[in-house]
Amino acid sequence: MARYDSLLDACGGTPLVGLPRLSPTVPDGAPPVRLWAKLEDRNPTGSIKDRAALFMVRAAEEAGRLRAGDTILEPTSGNTGISLAMVAKLRGYRLVCVMPENVSTERVQLLRMYGAEIIFSPAAGGSNQAVATAKQIAAEHPDWVMLYQYGNEANARAHYETTGPELLHDLPGVTHFVAGLGTTGTLMGTGRYLREKVDGIQIVAAEPRYGELVYGLRNIDEGYVPELYDAGVLSRRFSVGTRDAVLRTRQLVEVEGIFAGFSTGAILHAALAVAHEAVRDGRRADVAFVVCDGGWKYLSTGAYGGTLADAEDALDGQLWA
Amino acid sequence: MAIEVRIPTILRSYTGGAKVVEGSGDTLADLLTDLDSRHAGLRGRLVTDAGALHRFVNVYVNDEDVRFLGALDAKLNDGDSVTILPAVAGGAFGFAAAAAIASHAVSARATAAAR
């Protein structure tokens, strides 16, 4: 388990650790209710997105869409860009990321360090400007390959083939799986696998609820649902606000020593909700949830210290998950 | 007691700019009918002609998505908090930009297949 031929071979196989202090206490004689954290920050670039990036690039290679020296274009300000930059470097591709100019300095530095080129869209123009910039670049470079994580089946398949089997192997009695809802790849892939293997499994989504500025829509019809999303895979879906996400992120490091990003706090909030319901109903529960990434990239927000209200203000208008 | 309903910016033209309004009803459908009696047109932005929730609208009762609680038939109680949000999980930039150039991804596939 400890020796690999290259960094790409070390993707996945992350530890699942129990949270004895954060798991709710149950009355004497009642069945146990336990929380388990899957530490996806232990992937090569420090996030769960390494799995999807690797699978999407491999699928594009196998389909003949990507050949040595090709350029990959991805509009992202987050972990997917960092993961793709690492995979692109090791597999011999160039990566161009399009992102708004107001993303955190850590992200820009990480992307450049891994060798990605960055095209900024003006922050002042909001999402409409970002869309215009992305469209223009795509039109100017029709030969660039866009992996499009929101609709790429290899994104979900990465979790069907790796995350799901790993979880079931480590926790055969799993009753709930809780993860974040963004591209929906983690929940669709892992959820489908676990539904096939575990009777009565609950697949629970935690969706970050941002400040209104982040949504930047002018009307409902500008909304967007990722092509990968199939509501039939989910049992429940929670919307988690900034304050609850920050509170849980802090609890996770204070009580269990796990230093995670804020999306993980949102997921933990939903995991605790279903765990407490199980206690109330007197049912056994083994709730596995995803730690998406470590907290390092978010330290500059200042949201790990100070009051919850300060942290909420600091994250207002940002993409914290 | 009543049910508190949080209205997103893009729908506040129907509530006179109010961020939070109150309503009542035993189900979400009843609540929306009640709201529409004071905020005419609001219901029509949330519910399709076929009588289903609009694809790009998410409604949460006490932070839980109503689509998993019976959708418009979801049961409500006094004191519940209902939040209406446009569907853009994950933030505007990635989704909007990705959706905008999705057609590019398709054409890129065609290009790759042709060479």
UniProtKB/TrEMBL annotation, chain A:
One of its GO terms (molecular function) is transferase activity, transferring alkyl or aryl (other than methyl) groups. Gene3D superfamilies: 3.40.50.1100. It catalyses: [CysO sulfur-carrier protein]-C-terminal-Gly-aminoethanethioate + O-phospho-L-serine + H(+) = [CysO sulfur-carrier protein]-Gly-NH-CH2-C(O)-S-L-Cys + phosphate. This is O-phosphoserine sulfhydrylase. Its cofactor is pyridoxal 5'-phosphate. The lineage of its organism: Bacteria, Bacillati, Actinomycetota, Actinomycetes, Micromonosporales. Its EC number is 2.5.1.113. Coiled coil: none annotated. It is an enzyme of class 2 (transferase). Keywords: Amino-acid biosynthesis, Pyridoxal phosphate, Transferase. Belongs to the cysteine synthase/cystathionine beta-synthase family. It comes from Micromonospora humi. Residues 9-293 form the Tryptophan synthase beta chain-like PALP domain. InterPro entries: Cys_Synth/Cystath_Beta-Synth (IPR050214), P-phosphate_BS (IPR001216), Ser/Thr_deHydtase_PyrdxlP-BS (IPR000634), TrpB-like_PALP (IPR001926), TrpB-like_PALP_sf (IPR036052). It comes from the Bacteria. One of its GO terms (biological process) is cysteine biosynthetic process from serine.
Automatic annotation (TrEMBL), chain B:
InterPro entries: Beta-grasp_dom_sf, Mopterin_synth/thiamin_S_b, Sulfur_Carrier/Prot_Modifier, ThiS/MoaD-like. Pfam families: ThiS (PF02597). This is Molybdopterin synthase subunit MoaD. It comes from Micromonospora humi.
